[in-house]
Amino acid sequence: MAIIMTRVDNRLIHGQVVEGWLPALKAQEVVLVCAQSSDGAFARKMWRMALPAQYGLAVMQAARAAQYLQLPSPLRQFVLAEDLNELKAIIDGGFAPAQVNIGNTRYESGKKEISAGVYLSAREEDFVQDLKARGVKLDLRALPSSVPIGRLF
After folding, report:
1. I want to staple 101 with a disulfide (CB 3.0 to 4.6 A). Which of 7, 48, 137, 152 is the partner?
2. Cβ contact 125:112 at 8 Å
3. What is the pLDDT of residues 119-147, one digit of tens each?
């Protein structure tokens, strides 16, 4: 497996990923895990357009992604999950990340602000703590050059 980073970011492919993470990590493929992948060709075309041509792109729902990520790959893969539910689904499917970066999560009523752009429900906080207990290295930061922040980490 050549997974170099697993990131949770509801904005999916955007400037911080394209200009910050992918070049710094020398990624070759983005594995985009999101429920929207079932929306069809239009969404995939938009994500492909947002990603420079030198990066491969695999877009899939969690069940398929969990299987895909367990296959050997010669590419340096950057896993990008839309939210913590998608991350949990691929982990429940057998994917075992060594490291998870939380970059941005949506605000919803009942969620607590952990840092700028990161909001977690009590259930999500429990999930993050479970990951930590399993030995998954967690960090909370926007860019590779940023200092990791967050009280949960």
Report:
1. 7
2. yes
3. 999 999 999 999 999 999 999 999 999 88
